[in-house]
Amino acid sequence: MTRTIEDCHRALERLSENLAGADDDVRGAAAMNRSLSCHITDLDTTFTGRLAGGRIEDVTAAPGPPAEKAQIRLSTTSDDLVAMVDGELHFARAWGSGRVRLEAGFRDLLRLRSLL
């Protein structure tokens, strides 16, 4: 079932709330100040925002692939994004199987690993 752009936006809002309410280790890993993009491949839509203070802020959607290269880049389908946020799909398994792509600098990947 393909989700809508609104479903994906709500999933990103829930992810931001989850990060903000997480324990100290996870919240600390998410406390970076980085640009973020999430390309939803089946909807050909990219959400952009900032990971700052343990939250995802200033989220906007635009058609097509990312217009600019964010510091942290995620690419997945709408169903997989919602499933990951809802806890039905484990991020590490999805990443390992190629269902989700994550690109970031080495230091960012090290900090993000505790979120995975």
Task: Give a structural overview.
This is Sterol-binding protein. The chain has 116 residues and is of the alpha+beta class. It has a single domain, classed as Nonspecific Lipid-transfer Protein, Chain A, CATH 3.30.1050. Helix content is 37%, strand content 28%. The protein has helices spanning 5-20, 24-29, 78-85, 91-96, 106-112, and strands at 34-40, 45-52, 55-63, 72-76, 101-104. It has a five-stranded mixed sheet with strand order 3-2-1-4-5. Helix 1 (5-20) packs parallel to helix 3 (78-85). The model has no long low-confidence stretch (mean pLDDT 87).
Under CATH at level 1, the class stands as Alpha Beta
- Helices, by number, come to 5
- CATH topology name, in short, is Nonspecific Lipid-transfer Protein, Chain A
Output mean pLDDT.
87
The largest sheet, given as strand count, sense and whether it forms a barrel, is: 5 strands, mixed
CATH superfamily heading: SCP2 sterol-binding domain
- Output the structural class: alpha+beta
**Into how many domains do the coordinates divide?**
1
CATH architecture: 2-Layer Sandwich
Q: In which range does the helix fraction lie?
A: 25-40%
CA radius of gyration is: 13 Å
What is the element string, with H for helices and E for strands?
A: HHEEEEHHEH
Shape: globular
- What distance separates the N and C termini? 25 Å
- Estimated share of beta-strand residues: 25-35%
Strands, total number: 5
What spatial order of strands do you see in the largest sheet? 3-2-1-4-5
Uncertain segments are: none
